[in-house]
Amino acid sequence: MSGKHFKAHEVSCCIKYFIFGFNIIFWLLGVAFLGIGLWAWSEKGVLSNISSITDLGGFDPVWLFLVVGGVMFILGFAGCIGALRENSFLLKFFSVFLGIIFFLELTAGVLAFVFKDWIKDQLNFFINNNIRAYRDDIDLQNLIDFTQEYWECCGAFGADDWNLNIYFNCTDSNPSREKCGVPFSCCTKDPAEDVINTQCGYDIRAKAVSEQRTFIYIKGCVPQFEKWLQDNLTVVAGIFIGIALLQIFGICLAQNLVSDIEVVRESWFGECSFNLFSLPPVTHQFVYLKHLKQTKGCNEGKPLYSCSTIVLDSGIFLISSIKDKYVWRTNKTIVNK
């Protein structure tokens, strides 16, 4: 019996292992971020008293690690396992999740551009709210100090914003030694000093503004952030465009892999319209018929799925890629044996 061999569809190994390799790194980074976040909460006693999560009036930086780490963990897991196991559900989940993140980023960027003044007001509110909680959480305190030192600023719009904090306000009822002062991160740096003077901001706001300029930063963090953004607009835009392109690239690769997987499955169990009587005796790459005994409702040249009954010695055909299980089809229903 003469016949021709059929070329099997295959999943692209390059795409499969590229997605796997990239996402396993992404997944491990997510695990690291989650670990750091949970460790920080453990050190602060939050894990032993979950209700204390809501006690902090300001922003807890640990949330950054937990949220970013959680998203990275979920995305990395879905992409890694989905690619390795050729699981189309996980790969589709990976694509949709990544698409949602991309859409949210795009929406946030557009809204930030359109509603600049509203964003500025929200940033002012956010900073002032965290100024009130400056001494309540060590992580928040370190974040504020880093921000003021990096952008050489003090408060949201000026040093007087520290009146909002109960330890730094200038009211007569304030018994704190830090009264009418500012944190050390507001102080101008002296290159000759090897050790940071943490008391440099004491009583500084009791002096005239002209004297304050000598010792502390006068400008607020909101204007300084705007200035930094304008000065580094090209770099910031480049970073965001790069992230967006990576996300689009990841979605395209995942969808390409899903398409390959579905094509391979169709080649296994799809509606194959080849000539039943012209198949070779053995084709390890695809299927082979063995000891054809009887057919009913199936003529030469008709597709396999049109046959209502086909009887073979050991089943209708063999597919080596599913561990050499005999499989037969009756009325378009696949049955494994």
UniProtKB/TrEMBL annotation:
Gene3D superfamilies: Tetraspanin. It is found in: Cell membrane. Pfam families: Tetraspanin. GO terms for cellular component: plasma membrane. Signal peptide: none annotated. The keyword Disulfide bond applies. Keywords: Cell membrane, Disulfide bond, Glycoprotein, Membrane, Transmembrane, Transmembrane helix. The keyword Nucleotide-binding does not apply. InterPro entries: Tetraspanin/Peripherin, Tetraspanin_CS, Tetraspanin_EC2_sf. It comes from the Eukaryota. This is Tetraspanin.
